[in-house]
Amino acid sequence: MPPRKIIIDTDPGQDDAVAILLALASPQEIEVLGITAVAGNVPLDLTSKNARIVCELAGHTEVPVYAGCDCPLKRALVTAEHVHGKTGLDGPDLPDPQMQLTDGHAVDFIIDTLRAHEPGTVTLCPLGPLTNIATAFTKAPDIVDRVQEIVLMGGAYFEVGNITPTAEFNIHVDPEAADIVFKSGRPIVVMPLDVTHKALVTKPRNDAFRALGTKVGIAVAEMTDFFERFDKEKYGSQGAPLHDPCVTAYLIKPELFSGRFVNVEIETQSELTMGMTVADWWHVTDRKPNATFIGDVDADGFFTLLTERLARL
Ligand code: BDR
Ligand code: CA
Asked: In CA terms, which of 74, 214, 245, 308 is 20 to 30 Å from 177?
């Protein structure tokens, strides 16, 4: 099978960085057509810089990186420096990128790429707020049906929320954009907190990254060292949850994951529950299923895959 063509839409973020590294380390399964940066964990100038730092760390400076939307569709940007640090990539000491951003807007890249490829051959992989994707769908509705699949990190059902009591960060930052994407009618696979909180970098898993002894292995260990303090304190968990790498791992080994095809609606009205992903996990409504909502992962299999692939960079 030829590798699956993807666009990674991202707001790096340490876990975004690991997701990108996993994709770039897996050319047999994944062809990264481009990386589109969006404002999220930190403002756009930093996410678009961090995406290039990660490409350089991976030795893949040929991948085009585009800057996209600098704020959500209808709201002020909420960022997460309290989790990811001031730069968004705190932890390792990585050099400023030499690579330039590619000219043009991320949204136009998404539109042009979908139009240039056969329908059903490009998968979108959003790892941050859905602003770029929703803007592309609204600006060029003809591209929606050309999307093969959307595999995204966002939302929660059993774990409810991390940025508010009822909402996960990526969806909460731009609920109107998420609503557009979830109503798009394209096949969607969702990696909510319910599964990502099971992909924890425990001490032995962190040691395995460091033991690779490579620039990439050590940087990933230092990123997860930094990123873990927040979740350890908040949830008493054993280490950093690797949210976004669940997306790229799913593209390589979907059999590691399991979930249910259910209806998922986004709350856009209530200030109390803004950005909640209302997933009909128990099929208690007649609402039409629109997304495969993942609930479980073979965590040991996931970390074996990740460590083995990072060793290739
Ligand atoms: C999501 O929010 C960000 O902080 C992470 O990068 C991830 O995409 C988890 O809620
Ligand atoms: Ca992210």
From this structure: 245
Which ranges of the chain does DSSP label H, i.e. alpha helix? 14-24, 44-58, 81-84, 106-116, 131-139, 169-173, 175-182, 193-196, 203-211, 215-235, 245-252, 299-310
In one-letter notation, the amino acid at residue 224 is: T
Report CA(210)–ligand 2 centroid distance (Å). 22
3-state DSSP of 241-275: ECCCHHHHHHHHCHHHEEEEEECEEECCCCCCCCC
Q: For residue 130, what pLDDT is reported?
A: 99
Omega before 13 cis (within 30°)?
A: yes
Catalytic status, residue 283: no
Q: What integer pLDDT is reported at residue 229 of this predicted model?
A: 75
Least Cα distance to 151 among 37, 299, 9, 32 occurs for 9
- DSSP, collapsed to helix, strand or coil, labels residue 149 as strand
Catalytic residue among 84, 172, 197, 243: 243
User: Is-contact 177 131, C-beta < 8 A?
Assistant: yes
The domains of the chain, with CATH numbers, are 4-310 (3.90.245.10)
- 50 close to ligand 1 (CB < 6 Angstrom): no
pTM over 0.90: yes
How many A from CA of 290 to the centre of ligand 2? 22
174 lines ligand 1 (CB under 6 A): no
- Running DSSP on this structure, what letter comes out for residue 105? B
Give the mutation target among 127, 201, 227, 230 for probing the ligand 1 site: most ligand atoms within 8 A of CB: 127
Q: Which residue has the tokens 């731009």?
A: 174
Q: Is 195 in the pocket of ligand 1 (CB under 6 A)?
A: no
Geometric angle at alpha carbon 139, from 135 and 145, rounded to 5°: 90
300 Cα: distance to centroid of ligand 2 (angstroms): 22
Contact between 44 and 70 under an 8 Å Cβ cutoff? The reply is: yes
pLDDT of residue 77: 98
Burial of 206 from C-beta contacts in 10 A (0-12 / 13-18 / 19+): buried
> Whose C-alpha lies nearest to ligand 1, atom 4?
41
